[in-house]
Write a structure and sequence with these properties.
Elements lengths: L4 H25 L3 H4 L4 E7 L4 E3 L7 H16 L8 E4 L12 E10 L2 E11 L28 E5 L2 E2 L1 H9 L4 H29 L1 H24 L4 E9 L10 E10 L2 E5 L15 H16 L14 E3 L18 H15 L16 E7 L6 E7 L28 H7 L2 E8 L15 E7 L3 E6 L20 E4 L7 E2 L3 E7 L4 E5 L14 H10 L4 H8 L12 H28 L1
Parallel strand pairs: 10-11
Antiparallel strand pairs: 1-2, 1-5, 3-4, 3-6, 4-5, 6-7, 8-9, 9-10, 12-13, 12-16, 14-15, 15-20, 16-19, 17-18, 17-20
């Protein structure tokens, strides 16, 4: 059946609206702060083959996760799907979940007695078992250290719950009520999507809606290919490194990409990336594919409609046994730092093709996980927080401060919520001066978040860029690396690695997390002195850093620019920099 352009646009907007409504339902019914406040979840609509036909982006990686999860359900139950069924899956190898805490709930949609598609939601769970609260051990050596894994299992049959599944999940979680509450919220969001799809098919006809699915795939692929065709043919290469894998702490993990572009064809080869890691830094190919799609969307059109058609516009190669295509049962639970390094490498490799869309590296991602027994309720709790940092600077614009970057869109939980639900107090939550990388455009600032722990608990962190800082670009300097300290500024001070699991916190202990600042873009000496002075007045840059990095000298009261001293300082810094480059060149040539 053919479909005209007007009907296609109406149906496209309707499908996107259904997904938005599903997500609003999920976030408003969330039991955990992870879903309710941080919004670490997303929804999607799929066709009968499991291809994504609509995903209103919250977490871009799920464009790769949903089809893989649907494929697992179809492989196991494809001949026996019925109306009113619901399925759970969180297995990273048998499905597409990034890690086991990301449980996917899928419901098949039947219209006219035939399978029409799937409604799906993926949401992070605070705890699904394993050796540490939060189930995200930075020292896991296999996925069996990462909590309960569910292959594709039936959760409801003809709208009737399979109660044994909930009993198994509850028995494996430190916070069963929250986990089951969130799963039921996901199911409710899926059922809402079913209802809206049925209404849409009733209004426009089943055949026309199915025709729109095919056209959305075709137009998505064509949109990407047309943009790629405008880029210069060539071979583009870049790499980034993850601090470590949580086990081999002195060994950075290499993420290397070669992008080969010919006409409207684009191929990403990751074969020279590191071997799979002993620690949980590995990611599976569905996430690699999704990361590539995210980078292309960001560089071509951030408002592009998202469907599986985009995945058809490029190809990838990830060597089996590598960190981007590990062999079972390699651990994967702290996957996000690797994805961020992958995205940063993609942006760096493709920078020559779309120079107006490049940016310096941002802060990456991190989360803190604290588990124990609540002094409020007497029950077990898991405090899971996602903490943002500085964004990388771009041509024409400073990086954003205290924001998630790249494929991460989760929110920082409000202080009032954290203090009311968990035995902790926020002592400090502030921007870190001088953390943004100097540049013609300054990197965004990282944040300092300091906690007073009110009860004995077990602490874990999974972070990045504490050793290897966010890189600047086009002469911009690196952002300030992150850090994590227990009882800082005391004789009991202890610095933790980038990833750490199960540190024993005592009541009265303080821990402080500093997140990285974004890299700068362009020569810092080209930043207008007035903007540097404004940064100093706002507290973003210290007077010392203004002079040292930007060559801007302020008057004694710190409010005005000393024009003569600034001119002299910038000349001196430029000559010093040129001299250093000459010396380096002579040394290299002489060797």
């Amino acid at each position: 059946m053919t479909i005209d352009a007007i009907d296609l646009e109406v149906l496209k907007a309707s499908l996107s609206g259904i997904v938005q409504e599903m997500q609003n339902s999920l976030f408003r019914t969330g039991f955990s702060t992870i879903v309710r406040e941080s919004q670490d979840a997303s929804c999607a609509l799929m066709n009968a083959q499991g291809d994504v036909v609509a995903q209103h982006v919250v977490l871009p990686l799920h464009i790769g996760a949903f089809p893989a999860c649907c494929a697992a359900v179809l492989a196991e139950f494809g001949g026996g799907l019925e109306e009113g069924d619901a399925f759970l899956i969180n297995h990273p190898y048998q499905g597409g979940s990034p890690h086991a805490p990301d449980i996917c709930v899928l419901t098949p949609v039947f219209i006219g007695g035939a399978l029409f598609g799937f409604c799906g939601s993926i949401a992070h769970k605070g705890d699904i078992g394993g050796p540490v609260p939060g189930s995200c051990s930075g020292q896991a050596r296999e996925i069996f250290n990462e909590g309960l894994h569910l292959p594709a299992v039936r959760y409801q049959r003809r709208f009737t719950p399979v109660t044994d599944i909930e009993r198994i999940i509850a028995a494996n979680s430190r916070t069963p009520e929250l986990v089951l509450g969130d799963i039921r919220g996901q199911l409710g969001a899926d059922r809402l999507g079913e209802k809206r799809l049925d209404e849409l098919a009733g209004k426009y006809g089943k055949d026309k809606v199915l025709a729109s699915f095919l056209r959305l795939f075709e137009t998505g692929e064509a949109r990407l290919r047309a943009a790629i065709a405008e880029w210069a043919d060539g071979r583009y290469e870049a790499e980034r490194f993850v601090d470590d894998d949580g086990i081999d702490l002195e060994k950075p993990v290499r993420i290397h990409v070669v992008a080969e572009k010919n006409g409207d064809r684009l191929h990403f080869d990751f074969s020279d990336s590191a071997d799979q890691t002993r620690g949980p830094a590995n990611i599976r190919p569905p996430l690699v594919q999704a990361a590539c799609a995210y980078a292309l969307i960001a560089m071509i059109d951030p408002h592009m409609y998202v469907s599986s058609g985009l995945l058809r516009a490029f190809s990838i190669a990830a060597r089996e046994g590598s960190v981007l295509n590990p062999r079972f049962p390699a651990p994967v639970n702290t996957y996000n730092p690797t994805v961020h390094a992958l995205v940063d490498a993609l942006f760096a490799a493709l920078a020559p093709t779309v120079p107006t869309k490049v940016r310096a590296d941002g802060s990456g991602s991190r989360s803190i996980i604290i588990g124990g027994r609540s002094t409020y309720t007497g029950q077990g709790y898991v405090q899971y927080e996602i903490i943002a940092g500085g964004g990388g600077a771009r041509p024409g614009k400073d990086g954003a401060s205290a924001t998630t970057v790249n494929q991460s869109n989760a929110r920082i939980a409000p202080i009032e919520i954290i203090e009311s639900e968990f035995p902790t107090r926020l002592v400090r939550f502030e921007l870190i001066a001088d953390s943004g990388g100097p540049g013609r455009y300054r990197g965004g600032l990282g944040v300092r978040r300091e906690y007073l722990n009110l009860a004995d608990a077990r602490f874990s962190i999974r972070s990045m860029k504490h050793v290897i800082p966010p890189h600047g670009m086009e002469g911009g300097r690196d952002g300030r690396p992150g850090d994590i300290w227990i009882n800082p500024d005391s004789d009991r001070a202890k610095r933790l690695p980038t990833r750490y699991a199960d540190y024993p916190l005592q009541a009265g202990d303080v821990f402080r997390l500093d997140t990285p600042g974004g890299g700068g873009y362009g020569d810092p000496l080209e930043r207008p002195a007035e903007r540097v002075a404004a940064d100093v007045r706002e507290g973003f840059v210290s007077p010392a850093a203004a002079e040292r990095a930007y060559g801007v000298v302020l008057t004694a009261d710190g409010r005005d620019i000393d024009e003569a001293a600034t001119k002299q300082k910038r000349v001196m810094l430029r000559e010093s920099g040129a001299s250093s480059k000459r010396d380096l060149g002579e040394n290299c040539e002489g060797s």
